[in-house]
C-alpha cells in the first residue's frame, strides 16, 4: 500500500525563521511527488518533483527530492505570517490513479 | 493547469437531507476525483469519477451514500445522501491535467455543515 509520512505534524516559528518540512514515502512505480499549500479550503499547487537532486524554487520556497532515500523536503526561508498554512505532500504512481496524501504539516508563523 | 469551479461553496443542511455538489472544469480532463477533508484531518479520496461508467469508490465509501455522476469530460457531481453531522466536512473536486494525471489540481471546495 502506498504511504506518505510527513513531519513534523505541526510547527510554530517566528517571522524571519527558516523552516524545513519533511516528507517520506513508499510507493510502487513512483512517478512524482507534489507539494501543496492549504490555507482555507482548497490546496494550491506548489511543486512537482520527478527527478532526484534537482531543486525546484519559487521565491522563498524550494524543494528537492531524493529518490534513493525516498524523501523530499520543502524549505521556506525568511518566513512570513502569510506562510501560515497546512503543507501537504502527495505522491503519484504510474497509471491513472489519484495522489496519495500525507497528513500534512501545520505551520504557524507568528510575528 | 485547469480552472475548476465548485457549487455551492458552502451550505448548512439538516440531517436526513441530501446535497449535490457540482464541479466544472474549463477544459476536458480525463481524470476527476472527489475528496473529503474532515475537520483537522488530511484529504481522503472518496472516489474516481469515470466518464461514461460508474465511479470507482475507495474503501469505506459506497455509491448509495455518495452517488457520483460524470456525464462528460468537464463536469461531475457528488451527492451526499441522508446526511448526518459526521458528514460535516470540506468536499473537494480534483482533476488530473496531464497524461496519467501527473499534475493534479483542486477546486475551491465546498464546506458542508450538517446540523
Question: Care to describe what's here?
Answer:
The complex is a heterodimer of chains A (111) and B (115). Chain A has strands at 3-7, 10-14, 19-26, 30-38, 43-49, 56-58, 61-66, 71-76, 85-93, 100-101, 105-110. Chain A has a single domain (3-110), classed as Immunoglobulins (Immunoglobulin-like, Sandwich), CATH 2.60.40.10. Chain A has 111 residues and is an all-beta fold. By secondary structure, chain B is mainly β. Chain B has one domain (4-114): Immunoglobulin-like (Sandwich), CATH 2.60.40. Chain B contains no helices and eleven strands. In chain B, 37% of the residues are buried. The model of chain B has no long low-confidence stretch (mean pLDDT 91). The interface between A and B is medium-sized, with 25 and 24 residues.
Summarize this structure as a short list of keywords or feature phrases.
heterodimer, A: 111 residues, mainly beta, Immunoglobulin-like, five-stranded antiparallel sheet, 11 strands, B: 115 residues, seven-stranded mixed sheet, four-stranded antiparallel sheet, 50% strand
Summarize the structure.
The complex is a heterodimer of chains A (111) and B (115). Chain A is built from no helices and 11 strands.
CATH architecture call of chain B:
Sandwich
Strand tally of chain A? 11
- Main sheet specs of chain B: 7 strands, mixed
Largest interface: A-B, 25 and 24 residues
Which helices and strands, and how do they pair?
The complex is a heterodimer of chains A (111) and B (115).
Chain A: E1 3-7, E2 10-14, E3 19-26, E4 30-38, E5 43-49, E6 56-58, E7 61-66, E8 71-76, E9 85-93, E10 100-101, E11 105-110
Parallel strand pairs in A: 2-11
Antiparallel strand pairs in A: 1-3, 3-8, 4-5, 4-9, 6-7, 7-8, 9-10, 9-11
Chain B: E1 4-7, E2 10-13, E3 19-25, E4 31-37, E5 44-49, E6 56-57, E7 68-72, E8 75-80, E9 89-96, E10 104-106, E11 110-114
Parallel strand pairs in B: 2-11
Antiparallel strand pairs in B: 1-3, 3-8, 4-5, 4-9, 5-6, 7-8, 9-10, 9-11
